[in-house]
Design a protein that fits this description.
The protein is an alpha+beta fold. The protein folds into 2 domains: 3-156, no CATH class; 193-336, no CATH class. It has helices at 3-16, 27-39, 55-59, 70-85, 91-110, 137-152, 158-190, 258-269, 327-336, and strands at residues 197-202, 209-216, 219-226, 234-242, 274-276, 285-288, 302-305, 316-319. The chain has a 4-stranded antiparallel beta sheet with strand order 1-2-3-4. The chain has a 4-stranded antiparallel beta sheet with strand order 5-6-7-8, with helices on one face.
Amino acid sequence: MDPLTHGVLGGTFALLGKRARFAAAPVKAAVLAGVLGGMAPDLDVLIKSSADPLLGIEYHRFFTHALLFIPLGGLLIGGALWPLMRRYLGFWACVWFAMLGYSVHGLLDAMTNYGTHLFWPFTMRRESWSLISIIDPLFTLPLLALLLMATFKNRQRLVLVSVLFAAFYLGFGYTQRERATEAMHAHADALGHVPERFEVKPSFGNNIVWRVQYEYGGRFYIAAVRVLPWTESVWYAGGDVEKYNPSFAKPELPTLSTQARDVERFTFFSDGWVASYPPDTDSTLIADMRFSMLPNSLQPLWGIRINPHTPNSPVSFDSIGKRSGDDFPELWLMIKGE
């Protein structure tokens, strides 16, 4: 999720764990260590290379987000903070609160529609439970308000309210995901399709309109659906696109070339949801079809560009999706069911 949400939940969990250890520690110092610990795993964005454009996307939400890395991450962040906070916290107190904040980061990212390598090194699978969008103000702002009141008004019991609210919101996301999945299967059945695999994920900033996509017969079918309890679902048509197959793709790349390996890396990163862009063309642009500005759009947010004339040079990473002034108003109409 966004850094603000990670910081807020990190501070919240630091206060939650304050009663268990170091109860006499100053509240504001404990919260600050938790906030910074909660944001710290995203320092992996510093891992990048101009010689390898895919290195950054491969290592973001990688080992620093794994459950196994939490003790070391908390120790590193707490140890780095302690010289600045030694007037208020002892060394192990600083590590404790930083580790509490650090511990919630990977779990929260796993609940989004982007996912993270939560169980590295035991598996390279990216956990993406799609219970919440990577940015959701309705989730973040109440938690921020509760944390501020708990910190500056000394109402630490509000931390329990925060945890209950977060659990309720994520639980509601789960029920919404199941409703959207049911609607997706009903629509596929009406078309005579049997999805070979599928993804259902919340659209930007809400858990009412969901992007649904499935693979059938070598093509990806993409649309959006609005779901709410006790109401009829509203289906927003999208389109379909041919799945990228390197064995039949034009232009061709030598099998052992650098770019052929980069295509494999990008396909793994995109969980196989890759297609040529523009759709159904022999384009040199290979896109990740999991994300778009609008949930029923076939315009992806990013992709890689190959150059068959220089197959042993790295691919280039391209940002494809461009936000237009109509995107958010159109999404708002979808959220309202119009």
